[in-house]
Amino acid sequence: MIPQEIVDFIYSGQAGAVGSRDENMVPMLAMCWGTSIRDTEGVVITYVVQEQYEQILKNFNNNGRVTVTLVETTSYRSYQFKGQFLEARAMTPDEVDFQRQFRETVVAGFNSGGYPYEVADRYVGRADLAIEFKVEEIFDQTPGPGAGKAVELAK
Amino acid sequence: MAKIPEDLHPAFQGVIPSLITTCSADGEPNITYLSQVYYVDPDHVALSFQFFGKTIRNVEQNPHVAVIVVHPETGVSYRMELRFEHRETEGDTFDEMEMQLAAIASMTGMEDVFKLRGADLYEVKSITKLDDWG
């Protein structure tokens, strides 16, 4: 299971990115905008803009390796989740509401941090696709010499 | 190979942090935030090498990386596919990146953490605009 402090981190509204690679080991990434979990199953669900994921979805279907990094931009605290792709699917109505609230919170945060509203509004994506994957490993990615340390998953 | 257009230059000021993904030789992608993507010329950027972590180990095994930079005046993101060429530990690019990194560290309270060990030069292979506003 995912430790509670990381569950809290996921739901505190962090943006991040999703990474994959193709058969020639060429990596690809795109942003993700809102993340939730089904913790009893160790499944992480992240919300993305589908038109930016053409190559990434091909990669997932070819080799299944998924990496997601979430970051708190004010403190640089960040975690990286690695695992196996399960599916990409349309968002449920509850997820659409969740992502809309996430988006409003993040845009407001950037705006209060000094970014013009128009810039923040365009930066933060309007997700239309849910990507599910089974988490196998979590790493603390907060910058510094200790970055990359594995997080022990709760039994 | 792609050329970096002049109107993309503000995306290299580091106002909004960039992201990088690398891939190990055995096929495991890795993502981390990046303090600096530095414009060198229309065909090249330099990335800051600060820590002996997974990103550097992966680049030593596999020269392909992808980064996302954000234009601070529009909020539009751009994905760049890059290929590692070489590392510089002195010279104009290194010195200018070191000064810029010190400024970024000062603004973010990371003075004790951020230290430039190398300026890693990459060839730009492609640039893709990521913008759900069309």
Q: Care to give the gist of this entry?
A:
The complex is a heterodimer of chains A (155) and B (134). Chain A is an alpha+beta fold and 155 residues long.
Q: In words, what does this structure look like?
A:
The complex is a heterodimer of chains A (155) and B (134). Chain A is built from 4 helices and 8 strands; from the N terminus they run αββββαββααββ. In chain A, strand 3 and strand 4 form a beta hairpin. With 134 residues, chain B is of the alpha+beta class. Chain B has a single domain, classed as Electron Transport, Fmn-binding Protein, Chain A (Pnp Oxidase, Chain A, Roll). Helix content of chain B is 19%, strand content 41%. Chain B has a 7-stranded antiparallel sheet. The radius of gyration of chain B is 14 Å and the shape is globular. Chain B starts with 17 loop residues before the first strand and ends with a strand. Classes of the chains: A alpha+beta (155), B alpha+beta (134). At the A-B interface, strand 1, strand 2, strand 5, strand 6 and helix 4 of A face strand 1, strand 2, strand 5 and strand 6 of B.
Distance between the termini of chain B: 24 Å
Mean pLDDT of chain A: 92
Quick one: how many beta strands of chain A? 8
CATH topology group of chain B: Pnp Oxidase, Chain A
**How many beta-strand segments of chain B?**
7
Shape of chain A: globular
CATH topology of chain A: the name is Pnp Oxidase, Chain A
Distance between the termini of chain A: 6 Å
Parts with pLDDT < 50 across at least 5 consecutive residues of chain B:
none
Spans where pLDDT lies below 50 across 5 or more residues of chain A? none
Helicity range of the residues of chain B?
Answer: 10-25%
- Give, in order, the helices and strands of chain A: HEEEEHEEHHEE
Proportion of residues in β-strands of chain B: 35-45%
Order of helices and strands of chain B: EEEEHEEHE
Taken together, the total number of domains of chain A comes to: 1
Cα radius of gyration of chain A in angstroms: 15 Å
